[in-house]
């Protein structure tokens, strides 16, 4: 069973080396770190019996392992590691002094990615490893050089983008082992077998955010499809819920419930800058009842919400003839509410320099202020604000730019 696992891992690593290179070249969706350094320590357990009279402790301290790993992609890699093992006798048995040193080259399979752990966790991983190497059993001046095969599983817990905690269980099979693990006599079996259990720390080397152990590489065609779906979902948003999707909506902030045309613009047949439904409501509830100030809070909300605006033609500083009536709503409110004041906010589109547009927006606001002054509103109640360029619409759309060449109000 162990031999099959070793050969399977070795073959998988060899075959994937070519296919993985193509995969990485074809898939540029993610960058990731490939190198890591691994340090671990723990215990070992010789499986074979020792020399008659010598008995191993149930587990012998200690094992120290140091490795360097390179991941070809996020599923397969290779690593080289060296390990030092010392063996300890059981209490009340003859003492011995033996140790085992080994070095191995192993293939690595990232079972966490192969088995799609990312569907349920981003912090737990699992690696399988196996390969061949050489080792030496040593007791005093007596030495026995062996060849070995090993395989194991490494559980991972990601601590950060550059560190992971590991727990490993591995089995090692030695061939040509002529000494027992206690180093006292010739072995009576063709193979020596031992188990290692260690806990350690992995440090990921590189400048990328994540290491191959944790990155999920998506097929470039899938990524392209996901991006397209996301774009379509965004295009089909209807922020103001007027029945016209945003990418076709020339007025994406129209008031909810107000009738709009096929471009999402509020219906304004007399082109005075106030949606017909709002204008009809205002006329019925307010303009016709200026003496008693009916529903003044509603008027204030509509004005401050931008539904009463004064519009300007391109590069002009005087209101267009259709929208001058909008000023009358603000004027009426100020007359009926003598303690109120108003910010007169000038805007411009993005055509021209920023400096020029700032000046243009200020001039537009001042012209509206002048109209209110001539209508008897005290200057102390009127504050001009030059808002400059309005970048909320498509700069290349003439229809959209018409919407931002305006003066709005903020009643206080």
Can I get a quick summary?
The protein has 412 residues and is an alpha+beta fold. It is built from eight helices and twelve strands. The longest helix is centred in the first third of the chain and has 25 residues, at 2-26.
Task: Report on the architecture of this protein.
It is a single chain. The protein has 412 residues and is α+β, with helices and mostly antiparallel strands. It folds into 2 domains: 2-221, Porin; 268-411, 60s Ribosomal Protein L30, Chain: A (2-Layer Sandwich), CATH 3.30.1330.60. The protein contains 8 helices and 12 strands. The strands form 2 sheets. It has an 8-stranded antiparallel barrel. It is rod-shaped, with a radius of gyration of 40 Å. The relative contact order is 0.10. Residues 1-8, 14-29 and 288-294 have low confidence and may be disordered.
Query: Uncertain segments of ≥5 residues (pLDDT<50)?
Result: 1-8, 14-29, 288-294
What is the CATH first-level class name of the largest domain?
Answer: Mainly Beta
Number of strands: 12
Q: Any idea of the CATH topology of the largest domain?
A: Porin
Q: Report the portion of residues in β strands.
A: 25-35%
Q: What's the order of the H and E elements? A: HEEEEHEEEEHHHEHEHEHE
* Anisotropy-based shape: rod-shaped
Biggest sheet, strands in spatial order? Answer: 1-2-3-4-5-6-7-8
- As for the number of domains, it is 2
Tally the helices: what do you get?
Answer: 8
Which architecture of the largest domain does the CATH hierarchy give at level 2? Beta Barrel
Class by helix and strand content? alpha+beta
- Mean pLDDT, rounded to whole units? 82
Helix content, binned percent: 25-40%
- Amino-to-carboxy terminus distance: 83 Å
């Amino acid at each position: 069973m162990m031999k099959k696992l070793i050969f399977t891992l070795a073959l998988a690593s060899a075959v994937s080396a070519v296919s993985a290179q193509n995969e990485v070249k074809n898939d540029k969706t993610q960058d990731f770190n490939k190198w890591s350094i691994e340090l671990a320590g723990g215990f070992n357990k010789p499986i074979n019996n020792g020399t008659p009279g010598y008995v191993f402790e149930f587990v012998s301290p200690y094992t120290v392992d140091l490795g360097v790993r390179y991941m070809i992609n996020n599923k397969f890699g290779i690593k080289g590691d060296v390990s030092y093992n010392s063996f300890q006798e059981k209490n009340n048995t003859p003492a011995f002094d033996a140790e085992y040193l080994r070095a191995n080259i192993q293939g690595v399979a990232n079972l966490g990615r192969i088995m799609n752990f990312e569907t349920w966790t981003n912090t737990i991983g699992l690696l399988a490893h196996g390969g061949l190497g050489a080792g030496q059993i040593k007791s005093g001046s007596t030495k026995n050089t062996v060849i070995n095969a090993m395989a194991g599983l490494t559980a991972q817990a990601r601590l950060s983008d550059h560190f992971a905690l590991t727990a490993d269980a591995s089995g090692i099979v030695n061939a040509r082992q002529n000494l027992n693990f206690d180093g006292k006599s010739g072995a009576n079996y063709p193979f020596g077998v031992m188990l290692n259990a260690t806990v350690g720390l992995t440090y990921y080397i590189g400048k990328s955010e994540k290491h191959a152990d944790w990155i999920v590489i998506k097929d470039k065609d899938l990524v392209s499809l996901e991006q397209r779906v996301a774009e379509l979902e965004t295009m089909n948003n209807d922020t103001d819920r007027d029945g016209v999707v945003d990418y076709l909506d020339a007025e994406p902030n129209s008031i909810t419930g107000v009738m709009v045309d096929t471009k999402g613009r509020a219906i304004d047949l007399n082109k005075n800058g106030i949606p017909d439904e709002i204008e009809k409501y205002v006329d019925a509830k307010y303009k016709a009842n200026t003496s008693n100030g009916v529903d003044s809070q509603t008027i204030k909300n509509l004005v401050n919400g931008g539904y009463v605006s004064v519009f300007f033609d391109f590069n002009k500083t005087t209101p267009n003839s259709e929208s001058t009536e909008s000023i009358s709503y603000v004027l009426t409110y100020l007359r009926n509410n003598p303690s109120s004041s108003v910010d007169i906010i000038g805007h411009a589109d993005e055509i021209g320099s920023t400096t020029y547009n700032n000046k243009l927006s200020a001039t537009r606001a001042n012209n509206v202020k002048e109209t209110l002054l001539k209508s008897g509103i005290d200057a102390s109640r009127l504050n001009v604000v030059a808002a400059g360029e309005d970048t909320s619409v498509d700069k290349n759309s003439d229809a959209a730019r018409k919407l931002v060449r305006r003066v709005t109000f903020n009643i206080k």
